[in-house]
Each structure stands twice: as C-alpha cells, then as structure tokens.
Amino acid sequence: MKAFLDACRHAIGAQYVLTAADETAAYLTDWRRRFTGSAFAVVKPACTEEVAAIVRLCHQFHVPIVPQGGNTGLVLGSIPDASNTAIVLSLTRLNRIRAIDSVNNTMTVESGCILQNVQQAAADAGRLFPLSLASEGSCTIGGNLSSNAGGTAVLRYGNARELCLGLEVVTPQGELWNGLRGLRKDNTGYDLRDLYIGAEGTLGIITAAVLKLSPLPKAQRTALAALRSPDAALRLLTLAQMRCNSALTGFELMSAFCLTLVGRHFPQMHLSFREQHAQYVLLELSDSESEEHANTLLEELIGDALQQDIVQDAIVATSLAQSAALWDIREHIPLAQAAEGKNIKHDVSLPISVIGDFIRSTDALLQQAFPGVRMVTFGHLGDGNLHYNVAHPEQETDAGFMAQQTTVNRVVHDNVHSFGGSISAEHGIGALKHEEILRYKSAVEIQLMRAIKQALDPQNIMNPGKLLT
C-alpha cells in the first residue's frame, strides 16, 4: 500500500495521512467502547475536492473506505472491522458554513460541521435549526444525515431527512454530484437526496448539505408530568396535540427507573415530586406568538390533564434555568446507564397507538425469560421512537448478562416486528444490526437495496460490512 499512501499524501498533505498507532487510535474505537477496529491509515481531507481525490485513489487501488464524522454512533457504523484493509476517511476538517439565506430560510454547511455550531450559527442569524441530540456538541452534520438522525424535536420539525433540501456527494468512483439546491419543490426525477440520507455512507460520501431553517420561537415552556402508565402518557399526548397543535415541540417518555438511575449517579439532579410515579413525560412548547400565550397554553394543558386524572403531578419550569435542569435529567439517562454498568440497548420505532401494549407485553416476556431484569425505557413518544434498554438484574454481573444479548434482542425485536414496528428508529443499522434486518425485512426489500448498492458501488468500497452484507 505504499504507492497508495504516497498518492494520498501528495493529494492532501502528508500531515493529514495518519498511520502511527498513537495517531489513529482515537478513530478506531466506537463511542460506547464496545469494539476497536483496525485501519492502515486515517485520512483527513479539508475540502470536497480533496475528498474526491482520495476516493478516486481508493477506487483505483480497491481500498475500502469507512467515512467518519464525530464518531458518536451506537451501531458501529463509522468504525472499521479488524481486517486492517480499510482507511478511515475523517471529515472533521470539512467544517465551514458556506452560506446562510435568511429569506429562503436555508443554510449551506459542510458535512464535518458540529451540530451545535450549526445551531449557534442559525441562532446568530435569527433562525432556528431544530435538530437536537444528546451528542450535539460532538456529532457532525454528515453523520446526522447519513443516519437520518432524529432527536427530541421530530414531533414538530421532522428528522434529518425533513430538515435537508439538498446535498453535495462524492460518488464511489470519485465523481461529484452537486445537488445543493435550496428548493422545496423539485420534481425532476429520482430523489437522489433521499437515497443518500440514511444510507450510512454505503453509497457515497456526503460532503455538504443545504439545511432548512425556521423562525426562532418567541417563547419556549417546559413541564415534567408524572403519570401512572404509558397509556396515560398517550392520553396526555393526544390532549397536548389537540390543545397546542404545532406549538408542541417535544414529548419525551421516561420510566421511573430512568429517574432512579439519574438520581443515584447524579444526586445533584433532585426532583421535588412528593412520591415516585411509574412514568414521566417531559414536554416542551415552542410558541410563535408571545411568552404570555405560551404560559397560558401550558397552564391550561396541565390543568386539564390534572382535572381529567391523566396527570398525577407536574413541575412547570418558570425560568430558562429550570427548563434546562429538566432537560438535563432527560439527557443524563444514558450517562446514568453507563455508570450503572453495561446494558442492552434497543432503538425501536412503533405506531404511537400501540406503545403502551408493546411496553407491557415486552416487559412481561423479558421478566419471564430473565427474572429481575431492569427496564430503562425512555424516548421520543411523540414520534413513536423508544429507547427500550435492558439492564442486568441487580444480583447478576453486567458481563454475564451481556452474554445473553442475542437472546434478549430476539425477544425485543420479534415483539417490535409483531406490533408493526422497526428495529432501528434513529441510530441506523451499521455493523451491529446488519444480520438483524435480514430477519425482519422482506426478500424483495433486501433485493432492491442490494441492487442499488451494486449499481452505485460495484467494487463495494464504501463502508463495506455496514447496513448490508
């Protein structure tokens, strides 16, 4: 591979072709530290033209490419395997915001831009980029689009696909497709944009995107409601949508054990409820009229929910600091899980109407098969996305329980399928679930996906072993 590496160094500069173990190590282990792969180089181009040059060399030398943004994924989508035959193509140097069009409500950014920086640039221009994730301080736009990220505001604004109008993509042959069009309507053939979004880097490399912006809300109000069950949460969702319509921005479900874990490992995050409740909902309104209107909407909603015995108790934030503190509780659930020990994660999507039945039946199936397991159930109830995670029984080690992961996954995923759901809502498939989708997708669907992959990437150099095998 000396000739290939020399050509890469000539194309982008020797200092951006990393081969020493101490230089590449940070790019080879996934965020959860469950797997470490191997690559004979990490290559860091600075612009679209340099990305294209590297891809042309990979095409010429038949070198597999693993594209990587912030490396915050949870399904091993941006980590190479252990074969040491691939390069990691880090896109973090493609971090320019190219343009903001406040009249068209669009922003053109490069794929290595950190999500939080994009949010701030939009705010500085008096606009909102609403995609919001726990990892927004380190994840990148390219990764968000490649996995079709969701987050906490999908209920109102949609996921990454709905927030993107156009793309710039380097094909597996090193050619450039410039689809950076800020159009809401463009009915001129196949929608290539949607083909690349959610493809996890298996069809090409997203190098830039035109993102959709929205006006900044005049006011945001947050409340934490305590409820008896997921069914009560669904009743609250229906009431909130009827009362608040598009002002309802976030609607997050959290089981009691989620808050127990946060309190155990982050005791400074104290809640003032008089007693523990089975479920909690964190809801947020974003109002386009005024603070007074937002306050009235939220107060009337919570009042009606209490009167109808949907909600048992509620904390309504009266300041931005209190609102941030409530959201901190939600965002610390994964951190509290990690502090408690390893757990088996599921990122599932279901028809909203069946979520209560799914939780009840799956909890029962798991307790029957693994007595004492602890359910860490939380997620974006408003769009049907649950993070249905399973922690080991208190008397068992997490290592022993993790050995049962395949069996646990089968129970959960089979039940998801029986309810008409999906085994991946927003995290993607990566290398972790590529065998699982063969169980739940039809042969026709898999055949169509493989035909697209073969047509666009016949050498199979784009993120091989991810999404499809």
UniProtKB/TrEMBL annotation:
Cofactor dependence: FAD
Single GO MF descriptor: D-lactate dehydrogenase (cytochrome) activity
Catalytic activity, EC: 1.1.2.4
Gene Ontology terms: biological process: respiratory electron transport chain
Domain FAD-binding PCMH-type: 35-216
Record keywords: FAD, Flavoprotein, Oxidoreductase
Statement: the UniProt record of this protein carries the keyword GTP-binding: no
PROSITE patterns per the UniProt record, alphabetical: FAD_PCMH
Family that this chain belongs to: Belongs to the FAD-binding oxidoreductase/transferase type 4 family.
Official protein name in the record: D-lactate dehydrogenase
Species per Swiss-Prot/TrEMBL record: Herminiimonas arsenicoxydans
Higher taxonomy: Bacteria, Pseudomonadati, Pseudomonadota, Betaproteobacteria, Burkholderiales
